[in-house]
Structures are given as C-alpha cells and as structure tokens.
Amino acid sequence: MANEEVLAPVSGSVWKVECTVGQDVNEGDILMILESMKMEIPVEAPATGKVSSLTVAEGDAVDEDAVLGVIAK
Length: 73
Fold this sequence. Notes:
Blueprint: E1 3-7, E2 12-17, E3 24-25, E4 30-36, E5 39-44, E6 49-54, E7 61-62, E8 67-72
Antiparallel strand pairs: 1-8, 2-4, 2-7, 3-6, 4-5, 6-8
InterPro entries: Biotin_Carboxyl_Carrier/Decarb, Biotin_lipoyl, Single_hybrid_motif
Keywords: Biotin
Protein name: Biotin/lipoyl-binding protein
C-alpha cells in the first residue's frame, strides 16, 4: 500500500482538524483548516484512501510544506 503525505500549503496554525486516524477519505475531502493572516485555508486530501496518521493537533503552528498527516492509498 502506497502512502501520500498531506502537506501544509502555507505557514500558519491548525485551526480545526476535520478527520480522524482510520477514517476513509476521498481525494478533495477537507481534512483540516489552517489559519494564516486571519484567513482560513482548507487542507484537502491529496488522494483517496485511509488517514493513517496525523502529525498535528488543533492549535499547532506549522510551516509551509510541513507534513500534517499521511493517507494510505
């Protein structure tokens, strides 16, 4: 089974996590919402599969291109 990393599109903080480990997701589903410069940026699933890990929690600060989680395809 291949894995696909979920990357932060911008630097900011994790405002809301919309998924859980073990959840089945489709490509394009919103996994979490980042807050950056008072804007909400949705983070979408890059592939269809199962959320195998989340490396952040609500309130965490993240850098652009940081790994937020992993989707097992």
